[in-house]
Amino acid sequence: MGLDMYLYKEKYFSEFRKNLPKVEGFEDCESMTIKGEAIYWRKANAIHQWFVEKVQKGRDNCGNYRVSTDQLRDLLRDVNIVLGSTQLVAGKVRNGQTLKEGGWEDIIEDGEIVDDTLLAERVLPTQDGFFFGGTDYDEYYYRDLEHTKKRLDELLNSPDVEDYDYSYHSSW
């Protein structure tokens, strides 16, 4: 269980475009839509919160929501703002919990934390929720942003980026 997040891309093909892909078992189809996973995240709750606020109009309901390429560019901009103004420094990170003497206790380990969280908290704040992962501004938060940047850079710099429709879906 946990927060799973997907950005899908899909493309509609029809006989009028004369470029239907050849797919075994679908040779007689006059049109088709191909949908695939463009980006997958696991417990990247700050990214999820961005989609809830900017795309889903505050509704956090595991629905499917259309996402424009302009919105994806806005997300990339926000990720770049945070990554460009922060860095990781040595610190203590929470890495789960353990049951001790009848209560839960955080497992604290050496790791890396974001040096200055002020901008991150304003631009891409973390979001708590049922199995949403940690809400600290640490190496896990930072790696989620780096993953998002890498995948959005690839997607948005593709010459055919505007040929697809995009949608966001989350589940937990």
| Beta-strand fraction estimate | 25-35%
Structural class: alpha+beta
Give the strand order of the largest sheet, numbering strands 1, 2, ... along the chain: 2-1-6-3
Order of SSEs: EEHEHEEHHE
Structure description:
The structure is a single chain. The chain has 172 residues and is an alpha+beta fold. It has one domain (4-85, 114-171). The chain is built from four helices and six strands, in the order ββαβαββααβ. The chain has helices spanning 45-54, 69-85, 118-123, 139-156, and strands spanning 4-14, 31-42, 64-67, 88-100, 103-114, 165-171. The strands form two sheets. Strands 2-1-6-3 form a four-stranded antiparallel beta sheet. Strands 4-5 form a two-stranded antiparallel sheet. A hairpin with a 2-residue loop joins strand 4 (88-100) and strand 5 (103-114). The chain starts with a strand and ends with a strand. The model has no long low-confidence stretch (mean pLDDT 93).
Brief description of this entry?
This protein is of the alpha+beta class and 172 residues long. It has helices at residues 45-54, 69-85, 118-123, 139-156; strands at residues 4-14, 31-42, 64-67, 88-100, 103-114, 165-171.
Question: What's the topology here?
Answer:
Elements: E1 4-14, E2 31-42, H1 45-54, E3 64-67, H2 69-85, E4 88-100, E5 103-114, H3 118-123, H4 139-156, E6 165-171
Antiparallel strand pairs: 1-2, 1-6, 3-6, 4-5
Helix pairs in contact: 2-4
Key terms:
alpha+beta; four-stranded antiparallel sheet; two-stranded antiparallel sheet; 30% helix
